[in-house]
Amino acid sequence: MYNTAKKQVWFGELRTSRGTSIVIHDNELPEASPGRIYLFNVNRNTIGEYVEDIVKVNLHELDSAQLETAKAEHDVAWLAARAEFMAKHEAHIELSSVPDSAPVTKSKAPVVADEPMDDVLDADDDMEFEDTGFEASMNDDNDD
User: In this structure, is the dihedral angle defined by the CA atoms of residues 130, 135, 138 and 140, taken in order, positive or negative?
Assistant: First the structure.
């Protein structure tokens, strides 16, 4: 089981049904989504987001010989992936902290009717309509 409280950078092994992979966890990476952690997977050569409850039971400590070998073989790739990851996330963080630059919208003054709507509706009730016998048609046929 992994314990990142003691170390800033933790090297370990992820054991799954597909096989094993060396993974690296760094406490200085930005925080992942709730319930998830970022791990550098050396087989994929990328930092990915993993569901912590699923992977934590499959993460195992390396013994001292394995740790030295993992650092020697994967430290350069890890540092390159970390630098790229941090650059992307710093740009995202910088953009999210930029205040909105859209122009301020002015609210339009509400339109006030000269007479109450009840009076207008009452006036329409008194009107009488006469059937003139006119029928409108939407046909484009010209019978000229």
Answer: negative
17-33 pLDDT, tens digit per residue, is 989 999 999 988 988 89
- CA R_g for the chain: 35
Q: Quick check: 13 and 60 in contact, CB under 8 A? A: yes
Report d(CA 66, CA 61) in Å as an integer.
9
